[in-house]
Amino acid sequence: MPTLSRRSLTLAACAAVVAALLAVAAFAPLPVSIVQPGLTANVLGTNGGTQVITVSGAPVRTTSGQLRLVTIAATSPDASVHFIDVARAWFRTSQAAMPRDSVYPSGGSVKAIEKANLKEMTDSQQAATAAALSHLGLSPSKVRVELRLADVGGPSAGLLFTLGIIDKINGNGHGGDLTGGRVIAGTGTIDAAGKVGAVGGVPLKEQAARRDGATVFLVPRAECADATAELPAGLRLIPVDTLDGALTALAALDAGKKTPAC
Question: Across the chain, what does the average pLDDT equal?
Fold first, then answer.
């Protein structure tokens, strides 16, 4: 029986070590989350049988069209994600692998993350209400707005909440709807001064929007590169920086005029 040389034994040992490391890497949990298009909800209507926007202290209009906030769905913060899961997501346009701390930036336990997401949503709703009432010249001491949306956390619905409040109270200011009867989706944070901020996960949110009938998508201008990379067919992209910019763009869209583009 031939004797293996020292070189052959060394190569065999190295190959075994590499194989063992690859096996460990394949089955070791990774600090990432798998995300995909999530639910959308029309802020002008109901969600789960509950009115999303309720206004008291001011007349409310009957609206047409839809303003749909969009979300992404992610694996649970305590779920184990492995290399094979990341590999599958890489080859699917309907999924993506993202660093877990970018999806759940608050970290900590599942309960702590849920609490942080709820606080972000509450803060976002307050900012959205303040921005809408300020734009309309209404006092928050006289007009009360209640926003109800279960199973959605984080601040990314701020812009759509603000637009929904304005549409319900004032529409386009000329007796018509902000939507012009269209299904308009969008994403973006908003502060009380009406500044729109980036949110992440835009390509997957665009898929959710188109899936649920949207033909127009409002996106923070800072995320134009991501938004145009995999834009679904039939979805028109409108970048915005501010609430006033979003309203101006919607008015131009309704009038058949040129709108901003990425």
Answer: 88
